[in-house]
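fwd from M.: "can u put these together and see what the complex looks like"

so here's what she sent:
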Amino acid sequence: DAGITQSPRHKVTETGTPVTLRCHQTENHRYMYWYRQDPGHGLRLIHYSYGVKDTDKGEVSDGYSVSRSKTEDFLLTLESATSSQTSVYFCATREGREQYFGPGTRLTVT
Amino acid sequence: QQQVKQSPQSLIVQKGGIPIINCAYENTAFDYFPWYQQFPGKGPALLIAIRPDVSEKKEGRFTISFNKSAKQFSLHIMDSQPGDSATYFCAASTVHNDMRFGAGTRLTVKP
């Protein structure tokens, strides 16, 4: 998984609670991404970062926020989780045109 | 709407067969077309990628065929093995790296 770790790997939370997922990389890649994976949709981009404190929205950003205070860490926050945010979340980094993915976090919102 | 359309959703072949997965796109700004392989419980891993200035690329048993005029590309797996059983995703990105993924194809290779 190209030096990318995600935590937690599994989480169950209740509707309305805040949730933060963490991505940590050891590759010193400038670009980092958060995707969600749902059956029938492939992977969809939530937010991405092109440097420390530099972030932008992706295709499905509503209900999510991100922060990047260090090159190696990229956080994804669900301010108030909803059942529609039950998904598998993947972090990725980029070198050149190639993206490398972490192992994923399975989030269930009940 | 899905910017990259992938078919079939699932595919079953016998060992030694040649599964073919197809993808189509509309955005002519796409200039990089990777394929990812994903095993259960793991993240997608880059398998092979092609740019539109070539019509075919081979890496081991995996081949991408690319048809720029038709805006289609496909993955062929030669001499498929049970270990190739996985979900395969095509993707396309622009120079700004706005990567869009197909919905995925679940491949099963029977022994």
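replying to her w this: Residues 4-110 of chain B form a domain with the Immunoglobulin-like fold (CATH 2.60.40.10).
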